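job 3f2a | input accepted
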Amino acid sequence: MIVPTAPPFFYPGGSTGCLLIHGFTGSPKEMQPLGEYLSKQGYTALGIRLFAHATSPDDMNRARWQDWVASVDDGWYLLQESVDEVFIIGLSMGGVLALYETPHLPVVGTVTLSTPYQLIQDPRIPLMKYFWRLLPFVSKGESDWQDPDQTEQHFSYDAYPSRAIYELVQLLDEMQKTLPQIHVPVLLMHSKDDLTVPPENMVEIYEHLGTPEDQKEMVYIEKSGHVLTRDIKKDLVFQHIGQFVKDKSSSAS
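job 3f2a | predicted structure (253 res):
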């Protein structure tokens, strides 16, 4: 059963659509403020729910990375029925999925927020595929939220499902292979104070992209946590994304 406060959302708007993808152990609620903002700017926004998210943490340990890709594909086909062009926007693992999908779908542009290039090297991760039942969950680290009110309203699982961490690593490997194949405009955003995904990950992604230099951009956000779409600097983040969509959409040409 889907958590009542964290369902997918759809905001009708104009002929330009934005497919919004939440992060690992998170929910569509992470992306909802951005969806509302984009809708007010005249864009159609669809926030999907990734497989095994916003239900029960146990569900994630039976997920495979291909299930998360399939969730994005489903959202893409739903959204493209209502619009003429699509931007894909992802937070954290949602950004990994956005980058992975970009060469496979006719997107106009891609935005990633707080997105990893790789996880910290840990020899235990490959073993999680086989021994996750002995340690089904891994505790999360220190919180980096800057807005305490948003911390209380945010929904995500309280711990990381071990088997799902292994699947995330497989997804990251696949994403890294696709980066040179990406040629559309890309906006990368990351907080300098992100304790979940170190900001140097953004530089790694930028350097491996096939997108021409004049069509890719990095933006650092200060005094914000990992969940850029809900933390204290979210309005600034939304403005950057809105401007990117405006500049790169077909209506701008």
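job 3f2a | DSSP finds nine helices and nine strands in the chain.
job 3f2a | closed
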